[in-house]
Specification:
Elements: H1 2-7, E1 30-31, E2 36-37, H2 45-56, E3 60-62, H3 64-70, E4 72-77, E5 86-89
Antiparallel strand pairs: 1-2, 3-4, 4-5
């Protein structure tokens, strides 16, 4: 999901607080959003809250029914057509 949001320019990564940890992706506690070793992306509360805020603002559409059925989230920028929907793994289930 993060990759899709970054690719579409809907979200930007924050400045890393510990630049020396950027790229330490082999560490199981590496957060790709914050680019630090702290907790994995799947447990990043900040990113989850950011995604929910984007949905509340109408900037993206989350298909929550699909989460229950297949463990995925549908992300669509609010002003795009249905033919350009991206599917990405939900943060909780990856």
């Amino acid at each position: 999901m993060l990759d899709g949001l970054l690719k579409k320019g809907v979200i930007e990564l924050p400045e890393p607080k510990r630049p020396e940890e950027v790229g330490r992706t082999a560490d199981h506690k590496y957060c790709r959003y914050h680019r630090i070793v702290s907790r994995p992306l799947e447990k990043c509360i900040t990113l989850k809250e950011r995604i929910m805020r984007l949905a509340e603002e109408g900037r993206i559409i989350l298909d929550l029914d699909e989460i229950v059925e297949v463990g995925h989230v549908t992300v669509q920028e609010a002003d795009e057509s249905d033919s350009e929907i991206d599917h990405a793994a939900i943060l909780e289930g990856s």
